[in-house]
Amino acid sequence: MRLSRYFLPVLKENPAEAQIVSHRLMLRAGMIKQASAGIYSWLPMGFKVLRKLENIVHEEQARAGHMAMLMPTIQSADLWRESGRYDAYGAEMLRIKDRHDRDMLFTPTAEELITDIFRAHVGSYKDLPLTMYQIQWKFRDEVRPRFGVMRGREFFMKDGYNFDLTKEDALHAYNRHLVSYLRTYERMGLQAIPMRADSGPIGGDDTHEFLVLADTGESEVFYDSAVTDIRLGERDIDYNDKDQCRAVMEEFTALYARTDETHNELKFNEIPEERRRSARGIEVGQIFYFGTKYSEPLGATVQGPDGKPVPVHMGSHGIGVSRLVGAIIEASHDEKGIIWPEGVTPYHAGIVNLKQGDAEADAACESLYNALQALGLEALYDDRNERAGGKFATMDLIGLPWRITVGPRGLKNGVVELTSRRSGESEELPPEQAVEKIA
Ligand SMILES: Nc1ncnc2c1ncn2[C@@H]1O[C@H](COS(=O)(=O)NC(=O)[C@@H](N)CS)[C@@H](O)[C@H]1O
Q: What is the largest CA-CA distance in the chain?
């Protein structure tokens, strides 16, 4: 992409309404623009990151054997009356009347709708286990939307739902989701710690939230510092193996790690004092087991092995895809701007031309651009007639992992300058070697 033709409305100043760094940087880097309270337009740069995250979530859900599908954002109130959540959900639900004066709503979550689909078409235990998920926009009329996309009113969520014959099978689905979440977040360059949480309006008894430690996090958390040393890494897990998934679950949840809703001082004080931590965290996902909470009122049963109808055991599992854009920035930035992890960066390298219009410099930039593209790497080429300082400041702000600086003087010596955004280190080397280093 050439910056001279891109839509990237970079802001020079910090917008007054932004209270946390990710909100400030997403506005300043021209990634989002507020349409109304808690509701954002995703501009090209922001949308590109959002799509990268969405793709990682799809890949890791597919790896776990979960099926992608898509449900509507606008739902009828009827199903929510059947489950008893229409009134219980409260003011957060955006209630809509259609032209025939029918009660509709903008989906805050989709347990009822997915259960309705299931009950209409699945009748035998032989059709289980079944896990379907969607990545779809949600609406929750937060009383105080704030922190940009972190606590929006319209937000992008992966919500997955498992249907199983027994509690044991459903708890395997729970553990399988935990493994898929750990891998998902690690691929995004994040450490998201599973912590015992409260199930709230979704319900059920077993639930863990996944929290990224950050001073600006809205959640208050208490944990054993040893929990921050555990990684899933490249372990090859058989997602269909109950014991393997349970072993990962136990490894990642054996140590004390809880949100304030489930915090237990007595248990916490059993941890050696030097390992006790209290901090703030950003909730980037949550998994639930809630048994027959929805299958019973909605009559979602299957014929069991003995021929008798059995209400299925369910769970639901969410990832805050749009919230993750902000969470990654909170976890990876400096005073100059964003520092995108390689796995989610909108472009792999920025190309800065120090002398636009100089035939040799222009040609060198074009060939770098094409060489990167040939390797499947995307570059953002700053071909504007702007002074070097301004180009460097923009590249630092938007946070691409690499910057290649091309100028007539360097080219005379057959070199360009390659700079790592994370380390800030630069080195001069021939263009081909710069491309190899980025690949
Ligand atoms: N107002 C919001 N703005 C941005 N992200 C949000 C908001 N509310 C929730 N999320 C994200 O969505 C994730 C899942 O939301 S949830 O309420 O915990 N879970 C559910 O709705 C379940 N039905 C999962 S299928 C949260 O972990 C959080 O990362």
A: 82
* Distant-in-sequence contacts of 69-74, Cβ < 8 A, 24+ apart: 69/132, 69/133, 69/134, 70/134, 70/136, 71/107, 71/110, 71/113, 71/114, 71/117, 71/134, 71/136, 72/107, 72/113, 73/106, 73/107, 73/136, 73/137, 73/138, 73/139, 74/104, 74/105, 74/106, 74/107
From first CA to last CA, the distance across the chain in angstroms is 18
Interface confidence: ipTM more than 0.85: yes
Q: Residue 311 in contact with residue 125, Cβ under 8 Å?
A: no
What pLDDT is recorded for position 366? 97
Q: How far apart are CA 286 and CA 178, in angstroms?
A: 9
Spatial separation of the C-alpha atoms in residues 403 and 412, rounded to whole Å: 19
128 lines ligand 1 (CB under 6 A): no
Determine if ligand 1 sits within 6 Å of the CB of residue 293: no
Which residue's entry shows tokens 């989610």? 344
Contacts for 383 with CB less than 8 Å, ≥ 6 apart: 2, 3, 4, 353, 356, 362, 365
Write the pLDDT tens digit of every residue in 29-52.
Answer: 999 999 999 999 999 999 999 999
Determine the residue of 323, 325, 328 to mutate for testing ligand 1's pocket, defined as the one with the most ligand atoms within 8 A of the Cβ atom: 323
Q: How far apart are CA 185 and CA 183, in angstroms?
A: 6
CA separation for the pair 373, 402 (Å, rounded) = 15
Token pair recorded at residue 23 = 């909100």
Distance 415 CA to ligand 1 centre (A): 49
CA angle 215, 216, 219 (to 5 degrees): 90
Task: Calculate how far, in angstroms, residue 146's C-alpha sits from the geometric centre of ligand 1.
Answer: 15
Pair 148, 22: CB distance under 8 Å = yes
E strands, 127-267, are 130-139, 154-164, 192-196, 206-213, 219-224, 257-259
